[in-house]
């Protein structure tokens, strides 16, 4: 049932930082719930949970919930768990030391400030009502919604919260804190949720009606993916691989090897090219307006649309920001405005353009100390001699 949720299928089918931490959490959960837990298992749990947090900060809530639980239950060997997390903690500390300002802005300040700025024209999207509707909609595309109801009812009846219940609650908190809430934010909750449901059904198997309800919700979760399979060109991963291969051939034919300015940097690794460092974050900072001043943008290798300055001869790749990708075409238009002669890449949604070359500068004449030469100096005949007046 976990595999039929649209939350999971969406998260693993797009270029996001969701699949890796979810896999780390699921693997750690398998080790956490084992009856026999050797010391190596406790070290591995710490490593996996720390890796999940390093990949996506929202996984700090399930990791912290397990840490608190392990403190109360000695058999979980909390100090070995902490020791296992140390290598990842050291790696994250190293990235912080490389650029403290960039680390804090990217992991804390930007996620807290950018949504309010971006949705200022659509404040309803930031309301609690919108959050409630979106959360219910995402959970209903799959068996997650009825599973959450069944697990919560079982916890109320037993009057005791189990470890999977605690991790489900931590994952739900992690999903609801950001504004607005998107489907991938609910992924940290799903591995412990379906483990908790399995534990409930182990003691009390589901009735026939419950099984039928779960089947209906599972089919609802598969519906978006099945519809994408029917319509050609709808599967994001397959489409991206095909477009990247075509784009690579085009760039090779044009002998383009320099970093590329684009709001779709996720397409570039398969082409063997790098994005311009200022556009490595895609459209997310580019669409902002007042989060950083000009000096901070230079220090952090970022650029907002209002301060866009591109060097002559810069290659620009546009077309990824469209309604099909929930993007903003105006962002691509701002890039194309700085270029000229956008050319479509055949068989893809992308376009290539280049900023105009630098205007030629006229050479300055060399200065010297020679006296000016009259116009007739190089005339062999020379000027006619001036007649001298007769003497008196």
How are the SSEs placed, and which strands pair?
Layout (H helix, E strand, L loop, with lengths): L5 H7 L6 H14 L6 H17 L4 H13 L5 H21 L1 H19 L9 H13 L3 H15 L4 H14 L13 H14 L4 H23 L5 H18 L7 E2 L20 H4 L7 H7 L14 E4 L10 H9 L2 E5 L6 E4 L38
Parallel strand pairs: 1-2
Antiparallel strand pairs: 2-4, 3-4
Produce a short descriptive summary:
It is built from 15 helices and 4 strands. With 392 residues, it is mainly alpha-helical.
The share of residues in helices is 40-55%
Number of strands: 4
Individual helix count: 15
Rg, alpha carbons: 31 Å
Instruction: Indicate the mean pLDDT.
Output: 86
Give the strand line-up of the largest sheet: 1-2-4-3
DSSP strand (E) fraction? Answer: under 5%
- Tell me the distance between the termini: 129 Å
Oligomer: single chain
Which class do the helix and strand fractions yield? Answer: mainly alpha
Quick one: biggest sheet? Answer: 4 strands, mixed
- Globular, elongated, flat, extended or rod-shaped: what is the shape? globular
Extract low-pLDDT stretches: none
| H and E string | HHHHHHHHHHHHEHHEHEE
């Amino acid at each position: 049932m976990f595999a039929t949720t649209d939350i999971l299928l969406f998260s693993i089918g797009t270029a996001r930082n969701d699949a890796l931490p979810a896999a780390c959490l699921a693997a750690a959960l398998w080790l956490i719930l084992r009856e026999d837990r050797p010391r190596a298992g406790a070290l591995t749990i710490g490593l996996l949970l720390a890796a999940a947090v390093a990949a996506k900060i929202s996984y700090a809530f399930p990791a912290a919930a397990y840490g608190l639980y392990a403190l109360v239950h000695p058999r979980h060997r909390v100090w070995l768990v902490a020791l296992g997390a140390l290598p990842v903690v050291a790696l994250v500390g190293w990235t912080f030391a490389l650029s403290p300002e960039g680390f804090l802005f990217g992991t804390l300040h930007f996620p807290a400030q950018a949504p309010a700025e971006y949705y200022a024209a659509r404040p309803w999207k930031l309301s609690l009502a919108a959050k409630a509707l979106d959360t219910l909609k995402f959970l209903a595309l799959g068996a997650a919604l009825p599973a959450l109801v069944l697990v919560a009812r079982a916890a109320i009846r037993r009057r005791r919260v189990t470890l999977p219940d605690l991790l489900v609650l931590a994952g739900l908190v992690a999903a609801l804190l950001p504004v607005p809430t998107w489907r991938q934010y609910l992924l940290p909750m799903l591995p412990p949720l379906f483990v908790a449901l399995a534990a409930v059904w182990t003691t009390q198997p589901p009735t026939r009606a419950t099984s039928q309800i779960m089947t209906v919700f599972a089919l609802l979760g598969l519906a978006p993916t099945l519809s994408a399979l029917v319509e050609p060109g709808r599967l994001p991963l397959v489409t991206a691989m095909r477009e990247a291969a075509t784009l690579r051939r085009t760039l090779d034919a044009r002998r383009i090897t320099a970093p590329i300015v684009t709001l779709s940097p996720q397409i570039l690794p398969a082409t063997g090219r790098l994005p311009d460092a200022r556009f490595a974050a895609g459209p997310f900072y580019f669409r902002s307006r007042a989060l950083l001043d000009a000096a901070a943008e230079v220090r952090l290798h970022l650029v907002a649309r209002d301060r866009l300055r591109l060097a002559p001869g810069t290659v620009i790749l546009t077309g990824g920001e469209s309604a099909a990708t929930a993007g903003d075409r105006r962002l691509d238009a701002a890039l194309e405005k700085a270029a000229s002669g956008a050319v479509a890449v055949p068989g893809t949604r992308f376009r290539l353009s280049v900023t105009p070359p630098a205007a030629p500068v006229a050479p300055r004449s060399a200065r010297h100390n020679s006296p000016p030469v009259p116009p007739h100096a190089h005339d062999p005949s020379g000027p006619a001699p001036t007649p001298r007046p007769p003497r008196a």
